[in-house]
Amino acid sequence: MAYSVQMMRVESHGDREVIVRDQNGLPPIDINMYVIRFRSRSESYRKSIAYAITKLYLWAEQRELDITERMRSGEFLTFIEIESLREFMRLRFNAKSNAPQTIELAKHTFVSADTYRRRCERVINYLRFLGHVFAGQRKRSDPYVKNMNTFITQCGQILKEPKGLKYARQRYGLSEAAVKKLLWWLDPENPSNPFQKRIRLRNQLIVHMLLLTGIRDGELLSLRPDALIRKPYGYALKVTQNTTLDLDPRLEPPQVKTYSRDIPVSDKTAELIDTYIRGERKQRGKSAAKAAPYLFLNSNLTPKPMTIRVLTHICDRIKKVDPETFKELHPYLFRHTFNDLLVLTSDLSVDSEEFKNLQRELCGWARNSEQGKIYTKRSREILASECLKKMESQFIV
Q1: Could you give the CA distance from residue 92 to residue 23 in angstroms, rounded to a whole number?
Q2: Domains of the chain, first to last
């Protein structure tokens, strides 16, 4: 049985529900009854739960097991079966082999240690949920509850062993030269610009904002036309939750992952936004005015809010015209590039609390977040190289 995770729009208020369907298009009751308990959480969180549980059922299908019946009967899983489940949970959904010969192949076969850990936690919580549901159908004197708790403990101990991929792929931001070349390609006046003239300014503005403000792609796609505001120090982008879901026609509307915030922007960025709104966007006429209230629209004849696919398409077009420079170009690289530029431009020490707080504020991270280290791989290597050169120069005559 093949499982799929889909989004379903609730017309009354615009929210999207995460639905798991089987190969017949029917929603399995046990799985969906569990997922819907988290409807107050973000869509991405609910989808991660759904994908983890479908991974469990795919494993059970391969071994011809009925997970629900095993939990209902109190037979649970044997030690060997839990060991098998552990190995299966390490694999990506599209893994071609479960025994890669090199580390490079392993990167495309196994999930990272963090992803593996989250998967296991979600599966264990789901099995515990089923256990409590079936325990409620038994007498208090029934040993089921005790046996179930023992099974959950044993299952957790086996699954949570560090079996994820430790050699995760490192993501590097673009070099300064690549950034300049990218902006050159996207210049609306550049005759070599690969995009149609009617969307050149929009595409230039999108990449400019992703590169030089640190905004997430979901936050960018959630911006309203009035997002640019004046502050005592200049201009800023007001990033808020997607509060008009009832008007958003996108199947998977973008969400702001963290708290709302104001991102300072330069006068040039503010000018680009204003020019885009008054020019390219306004020229689309009444259809654009009637579209859902989001800053960026797609290029369809009847404008609708832009989706993440448009960002991917922009990257794909640039890769096609300049594959040597932008072989790995993808929307997530812009955020890495922003953080690298922040490290290399700031006069603050990258490990100082002052710099970390600045980075956290601009990127929308929690006050104690250490994600900055993940996003500054390239700039940290540059600083390390400069430090070693300086150290070596002291001993060269």
Answers
A1: 20
A2: 4-159 (no CATH), 176-335 (1.10.443)
